[in-house]
Structures are given as structure tokens and as C-alpha cells.
Amino acid sequence: MTAEAAHGDAEEQVVTVGSVTFTDENRWLRENTPEVLAWQEQENAVTTAAIHGWKHFGEVRDQLDRTIADQPSTAEIWGTTTPRRMGRFWFRLDAVTADDPTLGLWVSETADGPRTLIVDPRDPAFGQDGTRAQLLWYEPAPDGSRVVFATYPLGETIGTLHVVGTEEGRLLPVTAPPHLAAGATPGWLPDGTGFYTADRTDAGEHRMRFVPVDPGVPGEADTVFTHTQLPHNTFTLTAQVSPDGAHVIALSGQHEQVACHLMDRATGEWRPFLPVDHPGECHGVWYDDDTYVAVVTAKAPRGRVVAIPVATSSDEGTWRELVPESEAVLRCVRKLGNDLVVCEIRDIAVEFRVITATGQAKASIPMPASGSSPTAMAARRFERSTELTFTHETFQQASADYHYLPGTNELVQLSESSRALPGLTVGRGFATSRDGTRIPYFLVHRADVDRTRPQPAFIEAYGGFNMALMPHYLGNVGPFLDAGGVYVQANLRGGAEYGREWYEAGRLTNKQNTFDDLFAVADDLIAAGVSEAGRLAFYGKSNGGMLAGVALVRRPDLWGAVVADVPLLDMLEFQSQGNPAARFARGAFLEDYGDVTDPDDSRRIAAYSPYHNIRLGLRHPAVLQIHGEHDHGCEPFHGRVFTARLRAASSANKPLLRVRKDYGHLPATRAQALEHHAEIVAFVMDHLGMTPAGSGS
Questions:
Q1: Domain residues of the chain, as ranges?
Q2: What CA–CA distance (Å, rounded) separates 520 from 456?
Q3: What does the alpha-carbon distance between residue 554 and residue 533 come to, in Å, rounded to a whole number?
Q4: Across all residues in the chain, what is the average pLDDT?
Q5: What does pTM read for this prediction?
Q6: Backbone Cα Rg of the chain
Q7: What span, in angstroms and rounded, lies between the C-alpha atoms of 157 and 177?
Q8: Does the 299-419 domain belong in CATH 2.130.10.120?
Q9: 137 half-sphere exposure, CB direction, 13 A CA radius
Q10: Pairing state of beta strands 622-628 and 656-660?
Q11: Domain Peptidase S9A N-terminal, which positions (predicted)?
């Protein structure tokens, strides 16, 4: 059933955004009315029939169940499950039982000793209106005696803060504001009697709040930062409290991280932490009561490490350089004992180095293989812990946890990798973009694949928000690889793989470069005989989903299939009325795309907005769009309006729309992840003419 048939006579409306005026026949699909939700369910049914009706779907799902990781990849999780130590306790997120992969919070007194479950999100106390809750992150007090965490209704990104006592496993009464899942980490006082956390006012201004935990601890007045003090395009705030509890740094994030303001707790006064108009990023950790050690990108686009005296932080002349800029991209720094550890990206692989407090090289931490860690990809911070632990994975190996022993410069593996893909080979390639920039990509396939002739290829890319798309475990596309396909990871401008300049070259007025880079990679794969037009599939998630929409409408000739996973597709009106996370999502949008109310920005964004660039009469490739019902960042209406307009524009390859219930921006459970990726892989394999390995037909 078409959108018009479901709605009757759909009326076109004339809409003006910024300096752009256009007609829109699908306004009704932007609202979650009963009529629209019924239409959406019809689309879900069509998608189920199309994908599950493929005769090999069951085989693909069964194969995927054997390759997909027990826990989400580091590319698919807000936080990390890596064990952490604070005080005498070790903490970690892990499955609540051997049969239930729901993440709960466990505590032990050694890294691998007996442990106790102190937070079980299945507890009805954490649910809302009978819905199931999920636990995404936690933050222990410095002495480990209590932990602040948040629970979220399954699929939601706005949750409720709680505090639990570590030894007794009992919830402590606190009154705290709702918490956004991504980016903002509370900061504890050294004695654990309270913590700072951030939210926004109804007017969208950032607000820092103190939450007392112990009885008798006095409250503090909220601090509201005006838009002049802290622009609204700043996504979230993290509180960083000094070791002596005398000062608090407000660290903005998450895609551009800046230690922007400092509070003297004795007076309650805040002041700018950095010099006026200091460009780029500045983020790090307290080294001692008087010194903040940070990665900065001003005059060093790949980053350098500096020690900043807090008393004179606004005078850059008093800063002391510890690590100069090099070919490596510095992502973050932390304290370990009296030394420092830096995380860096070198040739799109994560590395860790130990340096002294004066910047002298001390040790290169031996890595398990060339791969990735969430520390480098998106988080750009080490979890607060007195020990150095991290998660590591490769294209072939699912994530495992490691503990660094500085005394011997050794790694101890704390957990076994849950899955592996043996028999794969990894290669590299470079394409030349329209402006002459070399764009790197990885090629991953079975070692016995015949590369003398074109093969089906599955391209994944992101290219945005200062995030590095690193080598990550490919269990999610295991059946595609088993069937002889070639996986391609394209590292486009807009990401962080080569530092600040690479990021700047693919955002705002330079966003076109991201699209050119993708098409250059696709054309290079065809020219090199790796694949051919019509046998390429493109997959992108979130910002990458927007990229998938651009790929579909700009170069439909390239693709046999396109998958836009939680995409933004209407870039001029990217939020619905009443979105509870609108203040946060708008900040992220402004950071990378621009302000649609600005005349110049609106024209530039309209030029690539997928929804506004669908052309009549073109033969579009098969397209699958996936949304989460509770995704406040990339709302389902994007898929609805895009599906309706694309279907009206082309009679070939009807677009498919999947809107998942109990689902937000990412799969919340392994069962969700299995169904999610089974549909993606089956859809791609079907439209590229593939059959699963070992299939009888």
C-alpha cells in the first residue's frame, strides 16, 4: 500500500527552512499518529515478508548465531564492559547469568576472583510502566565504596540515575536529573559523599548540578551556562573533580572535547579554563591537585600532550609540552601511578604508550594484534580506574579484556574472546578522491577467494563526528564472508583516523568531501576488479546512514543494495516536535552539519539532504532502512518520509522500511543484534545474488 493510498489524498505543503523553500507531500508521516503508526506496521510486515521470505534467511540467521559476538562489538556500545578498579574493588559489566546476556554490574576484590552481582537491571525497581531496563554505564566513587549508574527503558537513551553501595548492594536515596546515555559522565567528590552531573534547562542551556549522596551533605546551587559561555552546539558536559576536591572542570563533548570551565568549590565561582578564543580540543585528566594534563590540537592537528597549571590555565605561556605532535593521532591521556599513558592511532590501529610525568618515553605497551579499542574509536577517554585495562578486537577476533602490568610491561588477558573468524585475510587499498586526497580502505575476505574476477563487496563507512572507524570484529557479516564476499571498510574524511585536519575536511562546509571519498572508493574497487557495479552493497549507520542515503540518490548506478541503519535522511527538518532529547541531538547536528536556520548552511545542507534529492524516474537499487522506535537522535519519521517519496519516484526495487520496537540507536540485547544483522546480511546477499556457504541451492 502506498503512503497516499493509506492516507487518502495527501496534500502538498510549502515549507521554508532557512533560505530554502520546497514542497512536501509527506508531512503527515512526520507525526506518530495512530494512522501513521498503522502505516508503519504495514511497512514492517512488507519488510518481514520480503527478507524472511528469502529461502536462505534461516540459514543466514543460523550461521550468524555462530559468528556474532556474545556481547556487542566496541563499535556498537555506548560504554565498555572492561573491568575497572577503584579502591579495593574491581567492577565490570557482564551477563547476569550464563543463560541471560543482560548486562549487570558485578564487583570483586581481585580482577579474576569471586564476584557479586550488585545491580541487576531486570529488577522491577528499575523498570518504568512494566518495561524492561538496561544498564549501559557506571561510575565508581574514588574509593569504590559506592557507584553511580543509570538505567534506561529498553532502547531508550534518556534514563534514571541511581547510586548503589558496593559492599551491601543496596540502593542509596538520591535525587538526580534524567541522564542522556551518551557522553556525560558524573564526577565524584574524593570522599564519595556526592557527585556532579550535567543536564540542560528547558531553554537548552547547559546546567551543572551537584547531587549529595550522604545525609547531611549540603546541596549546592545549580550552575547554568549561558549560550555565550557555552554554545548550544556543545553536546554534553562531563564533570572532572580534582584529587583534593577543590576544583571542578566542566569538559564539553562528546565529538569535540574541551575543558571549558573551572570552578573553585570554596567560592562556587566558575571561570573559563582556557585562553580566550583558544581553538580546537583540550581534554585530559587531573595529574595532581594543581595540574591538568591534556591532549590539545591547537597548532597540532594530530595532537600533543601538555601539562597545564590550573592556577594559570588561561595563560598558554605557562603550559609545558610533554609529547609533541607526531605522525600518530593522539586520542587521550590518563594517569597510571606517577606516569602517564597515551592512546594513539597509527595507521588506523590503536597503540598505547607510557611516558613519565616530564614526558620521557618509558614503554610501548605490547598489543595483542593490529586492531582497535573503544578508547580510540569514539570515547576518547580512559575509564576512571587505578589500573590500566582495555578492550581490544580485530576484524577476525571478537573483543577480549586485557590488564596492563607496568612493572613488567606485560599484558594479562582477563577474558577470552567469545568468537573468531578464522581463514580471513586483510589487505589495504587507497583510492584517489576528487580533490586528489588519498582515501584508505581495508579489504577483508576468505584467503581462498578468487580475486582474479569481481566478487560481491560490502562497503561500510562513517566519515563524521571526529570518530575513527577502526578494525572491528566482523562476526556481524560472517555469512557474507563465508559465502565468498569481500568486506570493505572505507575510512573517509570527517572521521578522526588522521587527526583534526581529516575531521575538519569532512564536516560543515567540507561535507561534500565525505561523499566524494566514498564514491572514489567504490570506483576504485570497480577499476581494480575487486567488484563491479551492481554487485556493491553499501552499509552505513547513524551518520553513516545519512551517507547511505546520499549514496543511494547520488550514485544509484553503483549499488546492488544499500542499507541505511538508523539514518538521518531529512537533513533540513531532522527533529520532530516534542523530541525529549532534542536539545542534545541538535547540538550534535550543529557540530558536524551546520545550522539549518542559517541561510548559507541551509542551502548547503539542502544540496545533499537525501530526502530532498530523490529524483523522479531513476532506477534506484534495493534499499533497506532500519530505525529504532525509541531513537531520539535519528527518529523513525526519517525512514517513513524517505520510503514514501522514494516509492513514488521509482517503480523498481521497492524500498523496505524496518522500525524495531524496544530498540533505540543500537541493539540492546544479543537477541536484538542477531535479528538485526541477520536481516541486513540476508537482504544484501539476496540482492547481490549470493547463497550461503554450504547451501544446497
A1: 3-67+421-687, 299-419
A2: 17
A3: 14
A4: 92
A5: 0.95
A6: 25
A7: 14
A8: yes
A9: 21
A10: parallel
A11: 14-411
